[in-house]
Amino acid sequence: MQLNDAQLLRYSRHILLNELGIEGQERLLSSHALVIGAGGLGSPVALYLGSAGVGRITIVDHDVVDVTNLQRQIAHNLERVGWKKAESAREAIAAINPDVAVEVVTTRADADLLNQLVAQAHVVVDCTDNFETRHAINRACVIHRKPLVSGAAIRMDGQLSVYDSRSSGNPCYACVFPESTDVEETRCATMGVFAPLVGIVGTLQAAEALKLLAGIGSRLIGRLLMIDGRDMAFHEIALPQNPQCAVCGQQHRN
């Protein structure tokens, strides 16, 4: 997709980057991102992907905007309390960049829906807050060989990684957090979350997604970035693939 004069002006600060330039911006305009979840993480992800000029964005979220969301979910406002979050996020993107094609899905992301949507996307961004959905997203990404940018935030702690099954040897989400593991679900409604932390994690997710789409830089593949919001400390953990993984292990590959 060639940039017109208005787009050359709008994206001029991207175009000035040696790593990106006109070709990279054109790749973004021709790309399709699937964002699952339009809450604390999904808000900055959706806004930055939209402002950066990703040509097509699909946002999936079945929930509605509540006043308690406004402490951290920056895509929403008081006027849109009671709206579907996906529709509110679409409105927020349109206010910044009306040229982006935003599609919304306001039903719960189950395996069948994910199988359909993931197959159409160039990158998938997981902004959900429960392990069942995270694992369903991961399975669909492994099946369709789509890169997955996964983030999480609770209390004062965040984490981020990129799972890319297009190359052998890369771990998937289930390698790190197996479905069989007895993981206690923690929700913002009961545990709380530091408002800027979801912005930090979500912004980093957007950055990783944009790098994947534009084909620039190195990515957080095989690396888990841990964020301590109390001391603003960042730590990195190497993530090897689990050859016995029930999702991406060798015996489970086609």
Task: Give the helices and strands, then pairings.
Layout: H1 5-10, H2 12-15, H3 21-29, E1 32-36, H4 42-52, E2 56-60, H5 85-96, E3 101-105, H6 111-120, E4 123-126, H7 131-144, E5 148-154, E6 157-163, H8 173-176, H9 188-191, H10 195-214, E7 223-228, E8 233-238
Parallel strand pairs: 1-2, 1-4, 2-3, 4-5
Antiparallel strand pairs: 5-6, 6-7, 7-8
Task: Note poorly predicted spans.
Answer: none
CATH homologous group name of the largest domain: NAD(P)-binding Rossmann-like Domain
List the total number of helices.
10
Shape: globular
| Total strands | 8
Structural class: alpha/beta
- Spatial order of strands in the largest sheet: 3-2-1-4-5-6-7-8
Helix content: 25-40%
Q: Largest sheet, described in full?
A: 8 strands, mixed
Output the CATH topology of the largest domain.
Answer: Rossmann fold
Q: In CATH terms, what is the architecture of the largest domain?
A: 3-Layer(aba) Sandwich
| Domain tally | 2
Radius of gyration: 18 Å
Overall pLDDT score: 94
Secondary-structure element sequence? HHHEHEHEHEHEEHHHEE
CATH class of the largest domain: Alpha Beta
Beta-strand proportion: 15-25%
Spatial separation of the terminal alpha carbons: 34 Å
Q: Which features does this protein show?
A:
alpha/beta, single chain, 254 residues, Rossmann fold, 2 domains, eight-stranded mixed β-sheet, globular
